[in-house]
Amino acid sequence: MKKIFPSDVFENISKTIWDYLHSRDWKLRFSEFIEEFYTFLAENLSLSRVEIDHKLALNCEVKKIFDAMILDHYCQHYADKEPRNVIDSYLSRRGWKETHARKAYLEILRIVPMSVYEVLDTKPGEWIQLQDLLRPFPPFQVTESMGSHDAIRTQKSIARILPYQGRFYFTCSSDRIDDENADLLVKSIRPHIPKTPLYSNSPDPAEFYSPESKINQILRSFDDQFILAKARELLLNPVIQIK
């Protein structure tokens, strides 16, 4: 799915962080993180670094989503030494020139967990209605221009979803996952989720990212499993055609 945000708010925000990661304080640290990330994937997917690079080179759309996945993942990474987090560092040094909305987006991206979602309905060109398969939210609509043309009912996805001005949006690394991988992921994580009553209304936007939420804390602890499931889909599933 291609992700569309309000262009006046989120245009080039990922590029902004990518560029910052190539500054003096972050270039080496980010390179080391990428090497560790590739090693982690290679060991768990039984692929060499060369094989991973070859698979990514075959499909530029897969490479874009893969890079966005790395960026999302690193935005939530905290190192043992200062500066510990790239978003904290960026906002403290260059946040003065960002709009309030872009700063709010970055602050949420730093903490919002991934989850597994199922498509219930779509309105092409406007929205996708989703059901969170791990948190007790009722169905809700995600504003999505491009991806809503391709989404089909019962399709599963792994996504980070961010609220903005009463609407919900995908981050750029969100993508579909096949039913088998989705089911395995849900079955491995759901037993750890506290049983709580289903929300009766549209989910409170803050519930998607609140660091105080016990459920969100649990989901963030499973980040490696989410990442592996997404990487497995991108690198090992030749049937998937990402548009």
Would you kindly provide a written description of the structure presented here, covering whatever features stand out?
With 243 residues, the protein is of the alpha+beta class. The protein folds into two domains: 7-109, no CATH class; 115-223, no CATH class. The chain has helices spanning 7-10, 13-21, 27-45, 49-57, 60-75, 86-94, 100-109, 179-189, 214-221, 223-236, and strands at residues 115-123, 127-132, 140-143, 156-159, 161-164, 167-170, 175-177. Strand 5 and strand 6 form a beta hairpin.
SS-based class: alpha+beta
Strand order of the largest sheet: 3-2-1-4-7
What would the average pLDDT be, to the nearest integer? 86
- Largest sheet properties: 5 strands, antiparallel
Q: What string gives the helices and strands in order?
A: HHHHHHHEEEEEEEHHH
Strand content: 5-15%
Shape: globular
- Count of DSSP H/I helices: 10
Helix fraction by DSSP (H/I, runs of at least 4): 40-55%
**Low confidence ranges:** 1-5, 238-243
First-last Cα distance: 6 Å
How many strands?
A: 7
Radius of gyration (Å): 17 Å
When the domains are counted, the total is 2
Provide a concise account of the structure shown.
With 243 residues, the protein is of the alpha+beta class. It contains ten helices and seven strands.
Give the secondary structure arrangement, pairings included.
Blueprint: H1 7-10, H2 13-21, H3 27-45, H4 49-57, H5 60-75, H6 86-94, H7 100-109, E1 115-123, E2 127-132, E3 140-143, E4 156-159, E5 161-164, E6 167-170, E7 175-177, H8 179-189, H9 214-221, H10 223-236
Antiparallel strand pairs: 1-2, 1-4, 2-3, 4-7, 5-6
Helix pairs in contact: 5-10
